[in-house]
Amino acid sequence: MSDVREYPVETGAQRLSVRDHPGGSPPILALHGLASNARWWDLVAARLSPRWRVIAPDLRGHGRSDRPETGYAFAKVVDDLRGLVEAAGLDQVIVAGHSWGASVALWFAAALPERTIACVCVDGGAASLRDHLPTWAEAEERLRPPRIPGLTEETVHAWAANGRLGGGGDAAAAGEILLGNFEEGEDGALRPRLSMEHHMEIARRLYELDAFELMARVSCPVLFVPARSGPWPVEAKAAGLQRARDVLGSRAHIEWLDGGHDLPVERPAELAKAIGEFLGRATG
Fold first, then answer.
1. pLDDT one-digit tens code per residue, 195-233
2. Domain range holding 223?
3. Which residues contact 262 (CB under 8 A, 6 or more apart)?
4. How far is the C-alpha of 103 from the C-alpha of 111, rounded, in Å?
5. If both were cysteines, with which of 36, 93, 142, 167 could 174 make a disulfide (CB 3.0 to 4.6 Å apart)?
6. For residue 121, is it within any domain?
């Protein structure tokens, strides 16, 4: 990944840190999930290059990007991305997102149809949380991340080596990607780059989102790539995907992959193949 460039982009309101993987047009705007970072797409981008250029930003509050005190609604996040696309001089993009990033990708596609060629949603985007968690109190308990005192780099690498994050067979790479979610605190221990307050604000916005009303405003082809395992039952995912088909009709495409929720790191080769084949059809 020596050709990857990392640089800041002034979007107007915010400064976003971007990882830019070289490749052809049209480019892919690749969005990470909640409390994650731009490196989550590194292993997929390496497999999509050189056919596709992949631009992966740290979304506001995440990674090395600005951390405003307010403004974590979907519309604000997409405004940042609009500014990024304009600053980069891009006419149209393919927008791809993982988890929360999938919902951001759909919002981008709905808000900026003239900029969006196609949309990819990786294990996300095709569910309304209120269908599964009737109250915010239930959702808040489920979505609140644990506090881990005394977290070290060694612990993070051990998670990658011993857990599902195999990085397509490269646990060391997966560990470095996971480390991008954290920074060193005053006590020398690692802490999440995204604050708990902003994490829960985004989680609340995601809980309140009507995913299928949002989908109804999307006019481009959409690929959903659900994982066969993970925190949500397969039956619930399948029901959401059927609703997505009902809303999007022939614009909806579905490709199930073996693996858990973090497919961009767990199954990068398989995910890159699914995305590449879809884009080959969608872009001609």
1. 999 999 999 999 999 999 999 999 999 999 999 987 788
2. 5-131+210-282
3. 40, 98, 164, 165
4. 12
5. 167
6. yes
